[in-house]
TrEMBL record:
Protein name: Tryptophan 2,3-dioxygenase
Highest taxon of the lineage: Bacteria
The organism of origin for this protein: Neolewinella agarilytica
GO BP term (any one): L-tryptophan catabolic process to acetyl-CoA
GO molecular function, one term: heme binding
Amino acid sequence: MANEKYSTVHYHNYLELDALLSLQKERSAALGKAAHDETLFIIMHQVYELWFKQILHELDSVCGMFRTETVNADNMQTVLLRLQRVSVIIDLMIEQIKTMETMTPLDFLEFRDFLFPASGFQSMQFRMIESTLGLREEDRMTYHGKSYKIVFNEEQTARLTAIEEGGSLFELVEGWLERTPFLRFEGFDFLTAYKKAVDEMVTKEQAAIRASEYIPPKMKEMRLRMVGDSNSYFKHVLSREEHERMIAEGECRLSYNATIAALLINLYREKPILSIPFNLLTELMNIDELLTTWRYRHAQMVMRMIGNKIGTGGSSGHDYLAKTAEKHKIFKDLHNISSLLIPRSSLPVLPEGLGRELGFYYGSGA
């Protein structure tokens, strides 16, 4: 008997093309009013769902590595590459909107009435992606004042709840950052050195503004307010109490220790051992930005297609989608690190021993 493991397979059968290509069932045709562009509409959304499946496949693998605390120099590159793949997929999803926009509003109206009450709001996989990344229910736009889960059945709701309770990528990355071993080192305290550098930088900038002969007095006052001092936008990393207050009031989410670690990684990104962690944090921000862009482009497409009409799922259509683009951001704390950066020339000089450590291997258990 031939070894089935090495048996040949035909392209057609391997991809299950008979099944795949039979899944485009136009409701307009079934109801005797065939609309040419409904096929495009169905295929576009089916393709999105296939990409959602791949994104979840990548995110689940990344979360799995973080959960077992195996994210070290051996496989952090794998984590980074899989997150980059997610970014590329979302970028492709954004580009695909152009294909949908070859359909005119009149073409869409030929079959829109057959879609009620179906809506992209009911995409289970997209909600799983959001929850896996770390979008919390309390941070979501509500659906007619009710939970986003109201459109899902009991089994689907249980799956979404399990994802929320199982530890999102946000929470796992937060824990990973908190394990960064270089915040305190013999003879060097990062926060103390950072505060001194910030004070020196601010003092220098203030002096330069005051000494300028080309800036009018009122403009000087405005620029001095913009520069601030170490008690302005630096305050929450120089004071744990202030950071905890901001978390309690919903102004930020990332823990204090994780924020300080992210700051250190950003400031000393050129050190060999911090290069991949920096790129990893950057990729999380890229994913956030790309999802925001995708939501915004989706909202613009909806405005183009139906104007201010109510969506097929009963939402406010364009307005709802535009608001989610602004509100459903997950890694905004990482973006806000930029306000805490100081010039390379102002960076505290690392002790020789710490400099050497940042060039060598360490794991999550270090």
